[in-house]
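Per your request, structure below.
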């Protein structure tokens, strides 16, 4: 079993199997051993850990994960990659390959079956076209997860970690930070992949909270307010929340709520912290009660 962190080995595997890279699956295979080590280190694995790897591709990262983790469940959507994975991962008794779409897998059941329902760690080099839906599914379903260590487009990683007042701060920042502590652990240039993507990438670790850092009486309403606040980023909050069809908030109620919180009635969404959004949601909920 040759290590795929060496570019020549990856090229050899691709040529041997006459594999055609599929754009529809967003396939960019990692070929840098240093980056693979950084990802594995960031995931903070030990022999007791069960890892779900999303999109193992040719198995480069799986090889590294298998050295540190007790068990690795590699979920790959592309059927054509399964025989390649069976070859590149042969001899690794702690690795199981599943040919499935991660967005359709019953993850709670999978974790129950493979790890007795105990928290698992997720590691992935995510296809960039579906990064956000996968991350939000993992977070919103409140699965038994310890951490999510993922390779994503650099600007997406920056948005997940961003704070109030920055240009990267938005609905994704707040959604991620409600569920987890986000930390960028490495930046990765295009030449670390085959084929080279057109963008820079970053590895980010999301360490899930046992309890969210803020409490909102109605989480669904809070996230509706957050989304509406950034849908029309340049508008004042009062107008954004009033114009959102799912909220149709009364302007006077929003103004009163903001002023009671010591926030200007001319404030925009990018100025509010997660704690302030939770408070605003509760105040507007009282208004509707």
């Amino acid at each position: 079993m040759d290590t795929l962190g060496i570019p020549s080995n990856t090229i050899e595997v691709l040529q041997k199997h006459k594999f055609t890279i599929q754009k529809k699956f967003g396939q960019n295979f990692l070929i840098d051993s240093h980056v693979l080590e950084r990802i594995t280190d960031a995931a903070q694995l030990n022999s007791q850990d069960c890892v779900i790897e999303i999109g193992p591709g040719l198995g480069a990262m799986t090889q590294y994960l298998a050295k540190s983790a007790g068990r690795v469940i590699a979920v790959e959507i592309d059927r054509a990659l399964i025989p390649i994975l069976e070859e590149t991962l042969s001899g690794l008794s702690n690795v199981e390959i599943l040919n499935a779409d991660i967005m359709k897998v019953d993850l709670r059941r999978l974790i129950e079956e493979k790890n007795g329902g105990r928290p698992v760690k997720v590691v992935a080099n995510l296809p960039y076209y579906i990064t956000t839906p996968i991350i939000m599914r993992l977070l919103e379903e409140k699965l038994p997860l310890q951490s999510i260590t993922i390779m994503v487009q650099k600007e997406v990683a920056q948005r997940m970690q961003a704070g109030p007042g920055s240009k990267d701060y938005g609905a994704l920042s707040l959604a991620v930070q409600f569920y987890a502590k986000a930390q960028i652990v490495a930046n990765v240039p295009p030449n670390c992949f085959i084929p080279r993507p057109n963008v820079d990438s970053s590895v980010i670790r999301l360490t899930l909270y046992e309890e969210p850092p803020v409490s909102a009486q109605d989480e669904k309403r809070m996230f509706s307010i957050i989304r509406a606040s950034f849908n029309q980023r340049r508008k004042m909050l009062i107008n954004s929340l009033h114009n959102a069809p799912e909220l149709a908030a009364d302007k006077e109620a929003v103004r009163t709520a903001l002023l009671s919180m010591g926030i200007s009635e001319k404030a925009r969404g990018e100025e509010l912290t997660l704690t302030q959004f939770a408070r605003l949601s509760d105040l507007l909920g009282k208004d509707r009660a």
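The chain has two domains: 7-208, 219-288.

Regards,
D.
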